[in-house]
Structures are given as structure tokens and as C-alpha cells.
Design brief:
four-stranded antiparallel β-sheet; 21 helices; 51% helix; alpha/beta
Length: 569
């Protein structure tokens, strides 16, 4: 049986219409060679049927007939025998509307029962390897709120792609080389020297990192080493502080991300690309292809020839490669590892750099020079996020008095709420309301969904105590589920495979949030309108089966989001 009953229904409608077209051609009421191609959608209003086809309107111009006339002809030659549909009608200027029969609704419940925890899974990915690179925060400081948003978005997108049949690789690019790391070492060094000599006796670098975390790292070194490092040459001290500070911060990032339920398959070291000579080799490949030129002792990429607004320096006059060169090398490396797609999520603060790099990487000449297919690269750029409480923007943590970090946020609200609230479309600005996230009522969307799951679990336990176990589909009378609220709930259950397919196609995991909120809403409406406990035995069993099917699908959605599905609340 087709697990995606929505897709199956649409395919069947297409077949029914085309069979009717063949019949109408044979009867001479449609022109010889007439072919009807159109789309099948789900109308917003149930009065228009469960599915609506546009085939008559799409063919009107070519057939030189009014759409409604074509629709009427199709309707006269349509056979619904053995199909998922019990009736057909025409609406507006030629929409052909179909109403689903009992068999379709039964098959939806059957599909949920058969697949269980795997219900919703589709196979558009066919096992192709896909990398999702996300967070990739600088290890020079704590995880920011922007990282929190990128973490939820990237991890849930990876889960959606797995459900869609892709072989997914989660990667964190560790920025453990370059200017920011040198400055990080110099900042710790300055704080250490101030501890040794007095704050007024050692100047802190003007462009250094001023956070308390730098002071804490210097204090840790001072506790173990005392003041004996002050006699070392400055460059040796800085190297020591980098070798101490970066692993310390990376361990913290890993700890905070694991608290956030995120684990990576690889923490890819930027430093390794430099040390292996890979960045230098990438620059040489571009140079051999004539894409570079020398100016003022530096090596420049002819980026304007690739569609960019300005040329970019890849190697400075001092012989050091730039971050732009490293980025090109890293993306070449990604593609050489055999991924069918390489998706990455950029923070709003990297918007300018990301757009420039995307232009460079999308140029066919660059891919040709590097010997890779850059069309496999896909970028999502997130918009800004604001943390709100009582209508006011929060910029600092009450606990620490410093900029609010992911760890601070998780001290205030649950991981469940954090992941759920941050999973919105990347291109949408997000106002994250802490007050709403901690509320335990229907205004809080994650609570609303979790409560639906707990409510069903409690109902099942209550009925089990009375001797009613959840039945199999073949043990119920599906025709008893005939009210509008019951049928609307089943139709929502049917949509999950389609939603996963579309979320994977569009790189938009927020569809799962919207879907499961709507599913919870339809369940609460059903629960309030349709009595279960104390009802006639056959009706009780049918409604209990529908409730349990809903429980399975809600849990499957929450599993994708890595949000808990409580059995009691």
C-alpha cells in the first residue's frame, strides 16, 4: 500500500481524468489527440470536495473549448468504481472536485498502523548522501542566540532529510585558524599578563575580545601556572594560550550543544586544511585556470569576472591566505567527499560575506577550475532573532549580566520549547517570547501539541483499565467515523508524508511545526465533539483507534523535532 495517501489520491485523480479523456475521445466529444494535464490540490473549503483538479482549465486554450464544457464532458465519462472517491462535481469556471470514499480514510489509518514510528517517511532521497553544515560557531567565545537558532534549524532540517530518505551527515566547521584565533590568544595573554603585573601595567589589545570568558581562561592558566609564563617570549605564550583556550571552548560548545540535543558526525578543522596544504593547492588550481592575478604583492581572484561586485584577495602580500580562500577550499573539500548536496546555514551576521561567496561558488568557471560541481551547494541565510520578555528585547542574561547565550537561555526555558520556537523559516525574522515559551496553556504551541499527546495517552490508559485495548484497523468499523471532525482529523493524518516531502524539497523544516500544531488542533476539536468513553462499543473502538493513530503521528513529528512526547502533563 502507498504510504503517502495524499500523493496516491492525486495520482489516482490524474488517472481517472485521463481515462475519462480517452473515453470522451472515443465517443467523439473531445478532439482526437486531446490530452488533459493539470494539477490536483486540496481545497481550503471542504464544501469544494477533498481534492480539486485544474485539468479542464489547463486544456481550454489548446482544445478551444470552455473549461466548464471540458469538465462536464470529463464528468460524464468518469468511472469511480474501485477508486478512492465516491463522488465528483464541478465548481467555478471548471474545477473538477472529488470527494474521498470510506476506503481512502480506512487506508490512512491502515498506513499509520502498518508504519508506526516510521509513518511519514518517504524516499525522495533514495539514499543519496547529503551534508548539512550548521552552527559552525567561532570557538573564541560562548554559543550565541544566533547559534541557538541555527542549531535548531540545521538539526531539524537534517532530521527531515533523513525522513525523506537521504543519508545525512551533520558537520560543524571548527574555525580554529586565522586572525580571530590569533586575537583570541593575544586577548588571553593580555589578561594573564595583567594578572601577573597589574591591570594598569599591561595594555589590552584595542581590538581584543573583552568578554569575561577571556578573563576566566586567563585565571585558569594563572591558577595552574602561576606567573612563570610571563618570562616566555610573547609568541610562545600566545601559542600556549591558544592551545589551551580553543580545546577548552570547543569542549564547552559540545557540552552545550549536547544539552540542546545536537550531535555532529564531524567537527571539521579549518586548521587541518591549512596544515595539509589544501588551501594552498586550491589557490594554485585557480591560478592555473587564469582566475587569479597579482597586485601589490597579493594574489587576487577575478571575482568580477565570476559575477561578483568586487575582486577578492586570496593570498595577502605577507604570504598568508585569507578567509575567502579558506572558504573556497572548504567547499571544494565538501564536494570532493562525494555529497549529492551540501547544505549550509549562515547566520544573519554573515549575510554580506555569504552572498559574495555564494556568487563566487555558483560561477561555472570556478567549479570547472576546481573540478567540482558547485550546483550541489545550497545556502540558507537566517534572519535576525530577538529574545523578548513582556514586550521588551533582552540583550543580557539576568544570571550573568552578560550577553545572553544558548546556555543562559536553556537555564530559563526547556530544551523542548527552545527547539520548537527556533524552528521557523530561515528567511523570517524571529521574535522569541520567553514569557510565552514557559507558559503552560494552549497559547504556548509546544505545550499545546504535547498536551494533545498526553491527553491521548491518558485516554488509552483509562480505557485499558476498563478492558478496552486499542484495536487493529480490521477490528473496527471505519464507516462509523463519519462526522466532519473525525474525517478532518484523518485527512490531517494523511498529510504527514506529503509535508515531509515538501519540507525536504524546500529546506523548510518549519512545515513540521505548522503541521503538528494543526494536527493537535484537529484532535482537540475531535475530542471535545466526539465522546469516546461510555460510547457504544463499536463507536468507542473506532474513535479509540483514531485517537491512537493521532498519538503515533504527533510523536513522530515531535521525534523529528527532538522534542519530548510526554504521556502525562
Amino acid at each position: 500500500m502507498h504510504a503517502n495517501l495524499v500523493e496516491s489520491a492525486k495520482e489516482q485523480i490524474d488517472e481517472i481524468i485521463n481515462a475519462a479523456c480517452v473515453s470522451a475521445r472515443a465517443a467523439g466529444v473531445l478532439p482526437e489527440g486531446a490530452v488533459l494535464l493539470g494539477t490536483v490540490g486540496i481545497p481550503r473549503e471542504t464544501a469544494h470536495g477533498d481534492y480539486a483538479a485544474t485539468h479542464a482549465m489547463a486544456a481550454a486554450k489548446e482544445l478551444k473549448l470552455a473549461p466548464r464544457k471540458i469538465a462536464e464532458t470529463i464528468m460524464k465519462h468518469t468511472s469511480l468504481e474501485g477508486s478512492y472517491f465516491k463522488s465528483i462535481s464541478i465548481a467555478g469556471s471548471g474545477f473538477i472536485n472529488f470527494v474521498a470514499a470510506e476506503k481512502w480514510f480506512t487506508d490512512v489509518l491502515d498506513a499509520v498502523e502498518a508504519a508506526g514510528g516510521d509513518y511519514g517517511t518517504v524516499n525522495i532521497g533514495e539514499g543519496k548522501r547529503v551534508m548539512v553544515e550548521f552552527v559552525s560557531a567561532n570557538p573564541t567565545g560562548p554559543m550565541t542566540i544566533g547559534n541557538a537558532r541555527g542549531g535548531a534549524l540545521g538539526d531539524i532540517l537534517a532530521s527531515v532529510l533523513e525522513k525523506a530518505g537521504y543519508n545525512v551527515w551533520r558537520e560543524f566547521l571548527l574555525n580554529d585558524a586565522g586572525n580571530q584565533v590569533d586575537l583570541f590568544g593575544k586577548s588571553i595573554d593580555a589578561r594573564y599578563m595583567q594578572l601577573c603585573l597589574g591591570e594598569e601595567n599591561y595594555q589590552f589589545p584595542e581590538d581584543g575580545y573583552h568578554g569575561d570568558d577571556i578573563k576566566e581562561l586567563a585565571e585558569k592558566m594563572y591558577e595552574t601556572e602561576g606567573n612563570k609564563l610571563q618570562t616566555l617570549p610573547e609568541n610562545e605564550r600566545i601559542a600556549k594560550f591558544i592551545n589551551f583556550g580553543i580545546p577548552h571552548n570547543v569542549a564547552l560548545i559540545k557540552k552545550h550543544l549536547e544539552r540542546y540535543r545536537i550531535r555532529f558526525d564531524e567537527w571539521f578543522s579549518e586548521k587541518s586544511l591549512h596544515e595539509s596544504g589544501y588551501v594552498a593547492e586550491t589557490i594554485e588550481l585557480l591560478n592555473k585556470s587564469g582566475l587569479l592575478y597579482e597586485k601589490d604583492g597579493a594574489l587576487w581572484l577575478r571575482n568580477t569576472d565570476l559575477g561578483g561586485e568586487k575582486d577578492e584577495v586570496l593570498r595577502k602580500s605577507n604570504g598568508f591566505s585569507t578567509y575567502y580562500a579558506m572558504d573556497i577550499a572548504y567547499h571544494r573539500n565538501k564536494l570532493e567527499r562525494g555529497f549529492e548536496k551540501a547544505i549550509e546555514i549562515w547566520g544573519a551576521d554573515h549575510h554580506g560575506h555569504a552572498k559574495r561567496l555564494m556568487t563566487t561558488l555558483s560561477a561555472p568557471a570556478l567549479g570547472k577550475a576546481l573540478g567540482v560541481d558547485c550546483t550541489k551547494l545550497h545556502f540558507l541565510i537566517m534572519q535576525m532573532v530577538r529574545i523578548m520578555r513582556d514586550g521588551e528585547t533582552i540583550k543580557v542574561s539576568k544570571r550573568t549580566g552578560k550577553a545572553l547565550t544558548l546556555d543562559d537561555l536553556l537555564d530559563e526555558i526547556s530544551v523542548d520549547a527552545c527547539r520548537f520556537f527556533f524552528n521557523v523559516r530561515a528567511d523570517s525574522q524571529l521574535d522569541f517570547d520567553i514569557g510565552l515559551a514557559v507558559r503552560q496553556d494552549s497559547e504556548n504551541p509546544v505545550y499545546y501539541v504535547q498536551y494533545a499527546h498526553a491527553r491521548i495517552c491518558s485516554l488509552i490508559a483509562l480505557l485499558a483499565a476498563e478492558g478496552f485495548e486499542v484495536p487493529k484497523v480490521d477490528e473496527i468499523t471505519p464507516g462509523l467515523l463519519s462526522s466532519e471532525t473525525e474525517l478532518e482529523l484523518i485527512k490531517q493524518l494523511a498529510l504527514l508524508p506529503e509535508e515531509i516531502k515538501l519540507a525536504a524539497r524546500d529546506y523548510d523544516p518549519s512545515r513540521i511545526n505548522k503541521y503538528v500544531i494543526e494536527l493537535a488542533a484537529r484532535f482537540h476539536k475531535f475530542y471535545n465533539a466526539c465522546r469516546i468513553k461510555g460510547e457504544d462499543k463499536d463507536l468507542l473502538k473506532a474513535r479509540l483507534k483514531l485517537a491512537d493513530s493521532t498519538r503515533i503521528v504527533i510523536k513522530n513529528c515531535l521525534d523529528i523535532l527532538k522534542v519530548t512526547a510526554p504521556e502525562k502533563m
